[in-house]
Amino acid sequence: MVVRHSVVLLAVLPLGCFIPKGIDVDDFTGTELPWTETLPDTLTATLTTTTLSPDTSLTDATESTTSADTSTTTGETETESDTDGPASVCDPQPEDVEAGILVDGTPSWDHPHTELDTSCIVTFVGTVGPALHLGLACDDGAHTIDVADVGELDVVAGDLVELSIFIDVPWWANVYVALRKDGELVLSAVDADELPGAGDGFHPGPDFFAPLDIAVLHEVCPIEPDDVEPCNFICQGCTRDRRLALAFVDDGEAEVVFDHGSGQLGDIAIVVGRAREHVEVFCTDTPGWRFDFVALRGD
Q1: Are 243 and 204 contacting, i.e. CB atoms less than 8 angstroms apart?
Q2: Which run of H or of E encompasses 44?
């Protein structure tokens, strides 16, 4: 198996170091360090205030029972316990949330390389167990999408929608799904080693989730310790990890959601299952970053 070193090196390449204009680092707990990635212009103009407290009104998302657990393919092992005390060295503390994606009922690593943009009619939308299940009759055939049920979705059977899917499997799997109705993004989901933007043939381009902007906030948390006792959140194995945060911007509004957190951006419910930098990697075929999230636009 050929390892794509260019993917892993993204975690260590110098990206510059500055505090974006309009963002007060004091708004973010758990760090005294600035970000190390240039943010889009829309973020620097709109991300002036943020709320770090998780939205407790959101129902905790659980991964689809049929979704593949990519932690087994990336060398990660995570367990939960009921032990008191902080689960992470960084606040806000992690929530018990997951963000799963299943395309066409097939585990992510069993897909061939896929780049699909097609028109569809919604044939079914509803919950199946812990997952939100979509049935679609598309120009290229039938498709199904299962994602973590994190909120309402503004589609009903009979709606005409546009489906975009990008899947690449270097060893682990990178999966990106977007669904638009009347030109408006209503579903966005990622389980991958990068956010959209690379456009290198292995990842989609920066407009995959347009007009939703998403940026990584680096170094908002310190690195998790080597030995976590008790092991109730991050269990170091193949990697040593740092929790990250994702900034979501839509229609001039912004929401920051940390690794294992949830948030609300207008009528968009968001769950970030993982936003992690693997600052040290001790196993082969393990990427430098891991991101998974689901964002659903309601009525």
Answers
A1: no
A2: helix 41-46
3-state SS class at 27: helix
Q: What Cα–Cα distance (Å) separates residue 173 from each residue in 8, 128, 189, 207?
A: 14, 24, 14, 20
Please list the residues that pair with 256 across neighbouring strands.
247
Q: Provide the b/e sequence for 204-243 (b: ≥16 CB within 10 Å).
A: beeebbeebbbbbbbbbbeebeeebeebbbbebbbbbbbb
Biggest CA-to-CA distance, the chain? 52
Residues 222-245 pLDDT 10s: 988 876 555 556 665 677 789 999
Question: DSSP for 116-136?
Answer: EEEEEEEEEEEEETTEEEEEE
The pLDDT of residue 14: 26
Q: For a pLDDT cut of 90, what percent of the chain falls above it? A: 50
Q: How confident is the model at residue 283 (pLDDT cuts 50, 70, 90)?
A: confident
| pLDDT surpasses 90 at 8 | no
Q: Which residue has the tokens 């546009």?
A: 162
- Alpha carbon distance, N-terminus to C-terminus of the chain: 45
β-pair partners for 255 = 248
| Residue in 155, 150, 117 with CA at minimum distance from that of residue 293 | 150
Record the tokens describing residue 295, joined without a space.
């964002």
The C-alpha atoms of residue 74 and residue 136 are separated, in whole angstroms, by 30
Nearest to 219 by CA among 276, 298, 291: 276
Q: What is the pTM of this model?
A: 0.72
122-129 own/partner pairs: CB under 8 Å, 24+ apart: 122/155, 122/156, 122/157, 122/158, 122/159, 122/161, 123/157, 124/157, 125/153, 125/155, 125/156, 125/157, 128/64, 129/64, 129/65
